[in-house]
Amino acid sequence: MAGNQSVRFISSRFALPGKLFHRAMSSVHNNYTTYTTTEQNVAESIDMRSDTVTQPTQAMKEAMMNCPLGDDVYTEDPTVNSLEKKCAALFQKPAALFVASGTMGNLISVMAHCQRGDEIIVGRSNHIHRWEQGNYAQLASVSATTLNVNDKGMMNLSEMEESIRVNDCHMPRTKLICLETTHNYSGGKPIPLEYLKDVRQLADKHHLKIHIDGARIYNAAVAMGVAVADIAAYADSVMMCFSKGLGAPIGSILVGSESFIADARRIRKALGGGWRQAGILASAASVALDNAMQTIERDHRLAKTLADAINNNTPENLKDSLFVDTTNITNMVVLQCKNRAKPVMIQDFFRQNNILVMAFDHYRVRIIPNSNVSENDIAKTVEAYRAFVESL
């Protein structure tokens, strides 16, 4: 009953959408990444801009208050050490390293696998290339051959092999292939194991290493019904974020060989990433890891519910302009926008009604249900979407 009342209330707010619609249209920006807002707006809103916006659970807070601590730079923090051992076992790799962020973990991996002047192969839309400031060039003096990525998050294998440099003193040396699963810019698509196997064979043929940006690797594992170790088996190193779908406040893990992690630890220190009583953060990450499966499965279920509802509530005359591809959907609902419907219009319309989403680019809106979002929040979002399409 309460849920129905809430939906009726939201519907009444949308009964006269004209002013809101024109306000949204008047605020269309040239820069489609205007998804930041004010602290007050966030507190009052259903926030589905990302899975990074979640608040720590009570269990995480209690773990942070009560965990044993030491100096992690001296490898003496028992909570960090326990988390690293847990992750090494989970990924079936010899060793692991707790780092501050996914960006740091990816950069450390490039620096550990490559020397100055070497080259990586990476997708043009991969996070490492697109959203990390080209830090491999800025800080590591490593260049990149960038390849197109298809809508499933994969680079073409023939193009990948053709881009490997020959042994010529005029050219950089190709050392590393960088993959990403789930692939963010492709809408959270999981990379199939068969593709990873093919890339592994190609890398071995040319004596190259493979790094997987697995910020959302748990989403990939759940979507494909496999263990994270099954994905990691094809890589020399993997990075996973605790602060995305898993819901911890801070931190990522790197896994790989003993020698790789030893190098990574040194590089982490050089980048200013050596931290002292880091168990406060590792404890929350450990709680997140213990609850990973149920957290991710719930997010995927809410995303599928929202995606289906959007498609079902799109009028026939707009189905070519507004639609969600529900193939292999994980935790990302990517609304394709064409013709009159512009991503910033949807973003601004939702924001006026206390729902935060992201205009992902000029053609798509990204909506990510997360652990702070309820089923009732999804119902409210569907009502907002219905009001938006009625205003077109």
SSE topology sketch:
Elements lengths: L1 H12 L4 H9 L12 H6 L1 E2 L10 H9 L11 H14 L3 E5 L2 H12 L4 E6 L3 H4 L4 H4 L4 E5 L9 H6 L10 E8 L12 H13 L3 E5 L3 H8 L3 H5 L4 E5 L10 E5 L1 H13 L8 H12 L1 H21 L9 E3 L8 E5 L5 H10 L2 E2 L1 E2 L4 E4 L7 H17 L1
Q: Could you please describe the fold and organization of this structure?
A:
This protein is of the alpha/beta class. The protein has two domains: 2-51 and 293-391, Aspartate Aminotransferase, domain 1; 58-290, Type I PLP-dependent aspartate aminotransferase-like (Major domain) (Aspartate Aminotransferase, domain 2), CATH 3.40.640.10. Helices cover 45% and strands 15% of the residues. The protein has 17 helices and 13 strands. The protein has helices at residues 2-13, 18-26, 39-44, 58-66, 78-91, 102-113, 127-130, 135-138, 157-162, 193-205, 217-224, 228-232, 258-270, 279-290, 292-312, 343-352, 375-391; strands spanning 46-47, 95-99, 118-123, 143-147, 173-180, 209-213, 237-241, 252-256, 322-324, 333-337, 355-356, 358-359, 364-367. The strands form three sheets. The protein has a seven-stranded mixed beta sheet, with helices on both faces. A hairpin with a 4-residue loop joins β12 and β13 (364-367). It is globular. The model is unreliable at 1-32 (pLDDT under 50).
CATH topology of the largest domain: Aspartate Aminotransferase, domain 2
Give a count of the beta strands, DSSP E runs of length 2 or more. Answer: 13
| The level-1 CATH class of the largest domain | Alpha Beta
Any idea what the radius of gyration is?
22 Å
- Termini separation comes to 31 Å
Low-confidence stretches: 1-32
Q: Which shape, going by the Cα principal axes?
A: globular
Count of alpha and pi helical runs: 17
Largest sheet geometry: 7 strands, mixed
The CATH superfamily name of the largest domain is: Type I PLP-dependent aspartate aminotransferase-like (Major domain)
The secondary-structure element order is: HHHEHHEHEHHEHEHEHHEEHHHEEHEEEH
Helix content: 40-55%
Mean pLDDT score:
92
Strand order of the largest sheet: 2-8-7-6-5-3-4
Which CATH architecture of the largest domain?
3-Layer(aba) Sandwich
Note the beta-strand portion. 5-15%
